[in-house]
Specification:
- By secondary structure, the protein is α/β, with parallel strands linked by helices.
- It has 2 domains: about 160 residues, Rossmann fold (3-Layer(aba) Sandwich); about 80 residues, no CATH class.
- It has 10 helices and 10 strands.
- Strand 4 and strand 5 form a beta hairpin.
- Helix 3 runs parallel beside helix 6.
């Protein structure tokens, strides 16, 4: 069974079709890229799958279950996590606390347990902190866990945002332009990190990215959008040789 299925989804804003009859599948632990010119509808597709936008038509399924139009927090609990084009960390909180925020969706002790500091609350907090520390070790951020998130270098802030997303224990991780603003060395490290995450956490990854070197290096399958419509699907070699893709990128090699 496919992990994610998007069937004939469209979304209309004021008469403008931002995404038109979009179809997409992603298998468990698969790494798939979504590319296209600015304004092609890539982030809109992410927003549909994560519940930010309700599609005008079509259906979204996660592991066979319909999640179309659910609230974002409910979709997150079902197993989809994401990062954003612009980093959204809590800059004044510590690195550790930023990751602990990701565990909030799995808290079971409730408000009363928090107020009364019940044994169940304490056990759950201790478990989450241990998991957060281990996650930071895995992503090579443990030595900085007590520092404010805003003090981290840019590349490490991206890494931390991914760590927080992984704290929600997703089946599917959506990365929206994770290489934006990175220097060449940071991009190399990011490619290695994405591959590592897919293998270590056995999580499916859906990636939006403008850096074509990164996309072509790690994407097992690539979908290309232009003006809200899919114009190509295939391997890196197939996409790079597609005339519609070349035209969409104004003749520049992808």
């Amino acid at each position: 069974m496919a992990l994610l299925e998007v069937d004939n989804v469209s979304v209309v804003f004021g008469g403008l079709k931002a995404v038109c009859n979009f179809n997409f599948t992603l298998d468990p632990a698969q790494l798939v890229a979504l590319i296209g010119p600015n304004g092609a509808g890539k982030t809109t597709a992410f927003n549909i799958v994560t519940g930010v936008y309700r599609p005008t038509s079509g259906q979204v399924r996660l592991a066979g279950r319909d999640i179309t139009g659910l609230k974002p927090f409910r979709i997150n609990r079902r197993g989809i996590a994401r990062t954003f084009q612009n980093i959204r960390l809590f800059g004044g909180l510590s690195v550790l606390d930023n990751v602990l925020v990701g565990f909030n969706q799995s808290i079971s002790h409730g408000f009363l347990g928090t107020v009364l500091r019940t044994p169940r609350h304490q056990r759950e907090d201790e478990q989450h902190e241990a998991e957060a520390v281990e996650l930071l070790r895995t992503l090579r951020l443990a030595e900085r866990m007590e520092l404010p998130a805003a003090s981290l270098p840019y590349g490490d802030q991206r890494r931390l945002e991914i760590a927080r997303a992984l704290a929600t224990r997703p089946k599917l991780l959506l990365l929206d332009e994770p290489a934006a603003g990175m220097n060449p060395q940071e991009k190399i490290e990011l490619m290695q990190l994405i591959r590592f995450i897919r293998e270590h956490f056995a999580v499916g990854i859906w990636l939006i990215e403008h850096d074509m070197k990164l996309v072509m290096s790690i994407g097992e399958r690539i979908t290309v959008l232009d003006h809200g419509e899919t114009i190509a699907v295939g391997t890196a070699d197939e996409v790079q040789g597609n005339e519609k893709v070349i035209e969409a990128y104004l003749g520049e090699p992808v």
